[in-house]
Amino acid sequence: MGDTLQFNNRSEYLDRLMFLARCSLQCTILELGCDLEKINWGVTLGREEIRQGFENACTVAGNNLQDGSFLPLEYLFYLFDCDFFERHAVIITLLAQLFPDTAYMFALIHDDKGMDTATPFALCRTYQEHGEFASKSAYFARGSRLLKYFFAENEVDVSSKLTLDKRILEFALGVSVRESYYTPVATLWNGDGQVFTDEDVANRIGAYIRNCEDFGVHTVFNLFGEKGGGRKSCIKHIARENGLNLMFIDPLFLFEERDSGIIIERILRECFIFQAIPVINFPEDVPASNQAILSRLLKRVVDNFDYSFVVSQRRIMSHQLKDGVLLIAEELGNLSLEASVRLWESESEKHTVDNSVSFYELAGEFILTPGRIKAAFRAASAIAHLYGSGIITLADLKRGCYNTLQFTMGSKANRLNPIYTWDDLVLPKYQKSLLITACNQVRYKYFVYQKWGFQDKMSYGKNVSMLFTGPPGTGKTMAAQVVSNELGLDVYKIELATVVSKYVGETEKNLNEIFLQAKKSQVILFFDEADVLFSKRTEVKDSNDKYSNMEAAFLLQKMEEYDGVTIMATNYVQNFDEAFKRRIKFVIDFPFPNQEQRREIWQKVFPLQLPLGELDYDYLTTRFELSGSNIKNIAVHSAFLAAAEGDAKVEMQHIIAAIRNEFAKSGKMFTKEDAGEYYMLL
């Protein structure tokens, strides 16, 4: 019978097992001396033939597995190292569930019409050795292989009705053989999809796994860091490189289960079925009522696997694990610029993106986790469809980046609305070129540091810091807005006077909070009135001087650590310590505008749509030495005067009246001599 036996598919294999199972029941009934009239279906095998039939089926199916043919039930027998009685128990129970017509046969075996399905008694009685339940009781003890992995029941006695667990039944029939049965509590990952990660961490752990043939003790690899920071992607990379399947387990869903202990065992069974390594998503702030469930899950994983992974936002502590477990913790920080660019490019393939978008620029300006990059694309796509043609632009993506970031500056900083561009900014050519160079150091960060290798030459100082110096009203705040517009980054203005505190340590606390929030968003930080904190260091006469120097040094340290753009502005550069200035990348002077620059400011200050009369620019630029801020105030004031009079245009009389008002604001008298040839307009 075994010489010609072969299984071409799952159906042929199951048909053969069900045939032998029927024969086993019929043989038992014959041995009991029962009437076969109702059950004789034309085939009668003796006990020895049945035994040989099962052995041959086992051998042939085992060969099929080795040859790559997948027979789900045989795979389960192999996986859980089942002996012949355990195989027999599962097959007979499967027969009872699949074929209701066998109910009469089971009733005859039990000599009880109400006992018309598989029981421990029937399984023992139909086995070829005529085993009594007492001799096989260990097979049905709580925690036995049959009860743990195959049967739906967790506790049985000799007469308990048995059914295969629904998961096992469906798997044996070829249902859900490629996916986890307990999603979302446990989700299988078998290598699908593209993975981007911190390859240094992934390669280090991967090498450790490959080189440890015998771990000796269970090892927990804890990957911790910000949510969406690529922790799971890193584990997927490790799995792909080492040919592993993963089972992602979320205890939050487990906490909602009524029979969590049973579900834990079922999840472990899923891991065994798919030969998957458990990955536990460690929840934050677990309530005391759920601590026992989490501890049990960790213990069962430790007891059954050589190693596992745990992902968390904070590093887990050794005392949270079972004694003797080796904990290896790795923090997942920011993606490298190169990995970030690859992820931006990969995500762009799922959307319609303008060809001019530079992902190098985005990677250099925004330090985002993989999860946030994906979210930024989703937000940008919505913005593009809502306000544009549906094609995602660089501006859409930058707006999308900010939409994904959650931060608050509180009362210590105000977001500026950057309305100015390079055309609005009137500066000497050299100073303007310095500003452009500073912007380029942000835009081309990827090329210089990553692609051209300067990151290996510099351990710090990759930030872009600027100091704007010059009298009030010369365009320092405007320049900060121009930089913001040019880079597409939000700019926040911090009045240092509101940050500095007389209480020791409070200033550092305020500054630390500002940079902590800014780090989440990569905004431009614009510190106005920096001379409040930075002044020439003289002899330290008292503790206040000492702490002032410490606070200034602390701010510079935070600026150097910050990956974004920081700008400081001061009206009194002469009071700025030289040692402090050396630690800033760009010191840009904003001089009081000369006559030529004042003319340019006057000509640019009025909007194009404003009706303008004949203005005497020679008179305005030679007669009045005004800052850019003064000129802007005068222009706005004159426009309101013209509007109130119902005039169609802004004329010189409105300008003269506005200049007079500007003088009065600073306590100056505006005389006929000041007005010159236009004194008649006073």
TL;DR?
The chain contains 30 helices and 12 strands.
Radius of gyration: 39 Å
CATH superfamily of the largest domain: P-loop containing nucleotide triphosphate hydrolases
Largest sheet, spatial ordering of strands: 1-3-4-5-2-6
Number of domains: 5
Q: Which word captures the global form? A: elongated
Query: Structural class per helix/strand content?
Result: alpha/beta
| Share in β-strands | 5-15%
Q: Remind me, CATH topology of the largest domain?
A: Rossmann fold
Uncertain segments are none
CATH top level of the largest domain is: Alpha Beta
CATH architecture annotation of the largest domain: 3-Layer(aba) Sandwich
Largest sheet: 6 strands, mixed
Straight-line N-to-C gap: 122 Å
Average pLDDT across residues?
85
If you had to describe this structure to a student in words, what would you say it looks like?
This protein has about 675 residues and is an alpha/beta fold. The chain has five domains: about 10-170, no CATH class; about 185-330, 3-Layer(aba) Sandwich (Rossmann fold), CATH 3.40.50.300; about 335-405, Helicase, Ruva Protein, domain 3, CATH 1.10.8; about 415-590, P-loop containing nucleotide triphosphate hydrolases (Rossmann fold, 3-Layer(aba) Sandwich), CATH 3.40.50.300; about 595-680, Helicase, Ruva Protein, domain 3. It has 30 helices and twelve strands. A six-stranded mixed beta sheet has the order 1-3-4-5-2-6, with helices on both faces. It has a six-stranded mixed beta sheet with strand order 7-9-10-11-8-12. Helix 13 (about 260-275) runs parallel beside helix 14 and helix 17 crosses helix 18 (about 395-405). The longest helix has 22 residues, at about 10-30. It starts with 9 loop residues before the first helix and ends in a 7-residue tail after the last helix. The model has no long low-confidence stretch (mean pLDDT about 85).
